[in-house]
Amino acid sequence: MARAGLTAERITEAAAEMADTTGFTGVTISALARHFGVKDASLYSHVRNLAELRARVAVLAAGELSDRIGSAIAGRAGRDALVAFADAYRAYALEHPGRYAATQLQLDPEIIAGSSGHRRCMELPYSLLRGYGLSEPDITDAVRLLRSTFHGYAHLEAGGGFGHPREVRASWERAVHALHIALENWPGLDDA
Fold first, then answer.
1. What tens digit of pLDDT does each residue of 16-33 get?
2. Nearest-CA neighbor of 14 among 44, 57, 48?
3. 59-68, 82-91, 156-165 — which is least confidently predicted?
């Protein structure tokens, strides 16, 4: 009875939930088998190995993250879009720490190419930054700035890295505002 209804999708969703509670590195085939009340071998008929399972969680999480950001920025531009993007990114990272960790996994390019969530995660910041009038190579540099700021902040916040009594949200808002100013005043190649 416990085996009935076991699918790769159901296993992936359970792994994502487990990642959020125990950490992404805590997701194992054995732990999932115990969760479902089956032997490890029962899972191997749905996923090849742990690497595939983790890649599947990464694809699921990238889809969720891109959906959240896409919904947040729809119909917005400039500072409003940046704030919505940043807040959606941070909220997802804090609400789903294991899934968010999965989005940082280095995946095979074929997996990324087949993942609409990963493609959207790459396209969304470029769209946002085109609204600031940026083009290449500046847009790639700005994407790297945003990603490193958002990721670093979320990673430090989730790990309790902000010990100062100042409200963390207030610092976040100031950081996003500073990014907006930087993007509006992006230096030209001659200024670099």
1. 999 999 999 999 999 999
2. 57
3. 156-165
